[in-house]
Amino acid sequence: MNAKLPRTRLILGMTAGLATVALATGVGAAQAQDRKPQPPAQQAVVQTSVLGVDAATRAAQAALDAAEKEGQRVTVAVVDRSGDVRVLLKGDGAGPQTEESAKRKAFTAVSFGQPTSALAKNAQGDGPTIRDIPGTLFLGGGVPVAANGGPIAGIGVGGAPSGDLDERFATAGLRAIGELR
């Protein structure tokens, strides 16, 4: 009987080992089946359109040229969708306030997807209005640049004696880059 004991232990040990492997494999397979499929990485990444530096420079230069043709000393800012400056051109003789004005008009236009002149009427009245949003400026002179149905940049002009003139110059910049898709 003692001779059978090591053999029995060996068989029991092998059986236990095989059972452990089978159990682990079965549990692993069951766990793999219970996992929900993960979305492809493409669904977790969002791509946005950005106005290229060449187009932004063309727009800014065209706006500055239009202003200079009419004897106006202005600054032109082109910002991206986040409001970061892509191009800033300060014309000869433009006042110190024109840089901030141009940047804020461009930011406002891209933020709301509308020319700043169209937004000005919503910035009036008592109590809180959109004029209370930091970094915005609701004076004429900012136009959005759109592609694929949404704003991707803003062109702002500051320094002419009226917002109408500033906006006309900004629109000249927009025309210089044409319709974007």
From TrEMBL:
Keywords: Signal. SUPFAM superfamilies: GlcG-like (SSF143744). The keyword Transmembrane does not apply. Transmembrane segments: none annotated. Residues 1-32 form the signal peptide. The keyword Signal applies. Pfam families: HbpS-like. Gene3D superfamilies: Haem-degrading domain. This is Uncharacterized protein GlcG (DUF336 family). It comes from Amycolatopsis roodepoortensis. The lineage of its organism: Bacteria, Bacillati, Actinomycetota, Actinomycetes, Pseudonocardiales.
